[in-house]
């Protein structure tokens, strides 16, 4: 029914935060473009900004919301006219059912996606910490 509302709300907040953080990062540091530079052994890898990593989370959330909305539309649970959710027309108990589904399924999905993203960020940080390997000379 309305389980995609919770990840959708998180996606809106995360997208706004990522946009603000990207603006802050761009104002704080000058962008360096290094083309064709050789890296030496022990040199650090280029770092991915945290705003970009937040955009990874936003992408995961928006993709999930789009798929869930399409699935609910396909099954007739979401309609393109008011009140948009067919369960909202079923009576007084429908609102309680929708809130219960949002609180259980929606929150669980949002947390699961955020945990997957956190693992992605941890792996990214681990890769960025490794020094670059020396290029083999032929």
In percent, how much strand structure appears in the residues?
A: under 5%
Overall helicity: 55-70%
| H/E topology pattern | HHH
Mean pLDDT: 82
Q: How many individual β-strands? A: 0
**How many H/I helices?**
3
Main structural class: mainly alpha
Unreliable stretches covering 5 or more consecutive residues: 31-42
Q: List the domain count as a whole number.
A: 1
Mind describing the biggest β-sheet? none
Q: What is the oligomeric state here?
A: single chain
Quick one: overall form?
Answer: elongated
Distance between the termini: 61 Å
User: Could you tell me the radius of gyration in angstroms?
Assistant: 21 Å
Could you write a compact summary of the structure shown?
It contains 3 helices and no strands.
Q: How would you explain this protein's 3D organization?
A:
Helices cover 63% and strands 0% of the residues. The protein is mainly α and 138 residues long. The chain is built from 3 helices and no strands. The longest helix has 38 residues, at 92-129. It has one domain (5-28, 45-129). The chain is elongated.
């Amino acid at each position: 029914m309305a389980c995609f509302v919770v990840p959708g709300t998180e996606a809106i907040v995360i997208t706004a935060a990522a946009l603000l953080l990207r603006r802050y990062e761009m104002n704080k540091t000058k962008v360096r473009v290094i083309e064709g530079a050789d890296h030496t052994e022990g040199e650090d890898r280029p770092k991915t900004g945290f705003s970009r990593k937040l955009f990874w989370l936003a992408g995961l959330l928006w993709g999930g919301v789009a798929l869930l909305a399409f699935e609910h539309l396909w099954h007739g649970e979401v309609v393109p006219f008011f009140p948009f959710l067919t369960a909202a027309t079923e009576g007084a108990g429908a609102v309680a059912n929708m809130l219960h589904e949002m609180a259980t399924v929606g929150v669980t999905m949002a947390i699961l996606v955020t945990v997957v993203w956190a693992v992605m960020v941890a792996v990214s940080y681990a890769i960025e910490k490794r020094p670059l390997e020396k290029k083999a000379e032929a």
